[in-house]
Amino acid sequence: MTTPTKLAPAPVIDETARLVIEQYVFPEIAEQLADLLQRRLTEGAYDVDDAEELARLVTADLQSANGDRHLRLKHHADPVSPKQGAATLDAMRRDFDTSLGGAPRVQLLDGGVAVVELAPMLFPLEWAAEPLSAALTLASRAQALIVDLRANRGGDPDTVAFVCSYLLDERTHLNTMHWRGGERREQSWSLPHVPGARFGGTKPLYVLSSDSTFSAAEELAYNLQQLGRATVVGEPTRGGAHPCKGWTVHPHLEVTVPFGRAVNPVSSTNWEGTGVQPDVPCAAADSLDHAHGLALARLAG
């Protein structure tokens, strides 16, 4: 058990405000938010003894301008490394090791319909390529495929493109990232070659979504939906389309700040604030049965 120490909010707020001004994808909003944080600090709103409570208060204020769920002060129960990005990476590594590399379930249902669950994240591609390739190759022989993203909270855009590559037949423009400042853009495409076997671009494909599906997992669902490749079944997703980086500002606190925004080449927009809207809305708990029924009906037809 860690011994509580007196929390000094001012250095945390000063550093958070500085990072938001320097990094946030919307500079005008960054200025507003930095002013809000400093004003609230002066008013004594952050005079709390508990890092978790401070994280909650600051996150509410950071998200008050435009509801950006990637913009937050995150509490970590265990002390985290001061190295930039290390807090997130350490937590992800633990999840990777306990989830078979982010593909905890591959199952064959009746009628030749396979399920591949991708959870709890789409991990960095240098870690995840091998387990994801194994899972998707195994499922490639199925007559129809259900990709379960209900418990996936995001991850790496390169991993999104890697997964999409197994579900399409040819190299396809998936997404464009617009980085802060507006002058730099980076396109994301599916790969011309994948290790293992592709499921391909023509057999029935369903994606399961929930209100926990977030960030890169939303991009995966949205890309496939906008291309007309997959039917999304379940609930609207959480609505976070901005890639972010993390900085440790206290041994138990990490600021995550979005520095870009996604623009889909089909819709010319993204899912920020709205979530990915399912093609077949139903409770997330029922979505697997629902998608299985749709797949069987389509195969029979």
Give a quick set of tags describing it.
12 strands; 3-stranded antiparallel beta sheet; 8 helices; 6-stranded mixed beta sheet; alpha/beta; 301 residues
Would you spell out the secondary-structure blueprint of this structure?
Layout: H1 9-23, H2 27-43, H3 51-62, E1 72-75, H4 86-97, E2 105-109, E3 113-117, H5 125-139, E4 144-148, H6 157-166, E5 173-179, E6 185-189, E7 205-209, H7 216-226, E8 231-234, E9 244-250, E10 253-258, E11 260-263, E12 280-281, H8 287-300
Parallel strand pairs: 3-4, 4-7, 7-8, 8-12
Antiparallel strand pairs: 1-10, 2-3, 5-6, 5-11, 9-10
Helix pairs in contact: 1-2, 5-6, 6-7
3D structure, described in words:
It is elongated, with a radius of gyration of 20 Å. It starts with 8 loop residues before the first helix and ends with a helix. The chain is built from eight helices and twelve strands. The protein has 301 residues and is α/β, with parallel strands linked by helices. The model has no long low-confidence stretch (mean pLDDT 94). The strands form three sheets. A six-stranded mixed β-sheet has the order 2-3-4-7-8-12, with helices on both faces. A hairpin with a 2-residue loop joins strand 9 (244-250) and strand 10 (253-258).
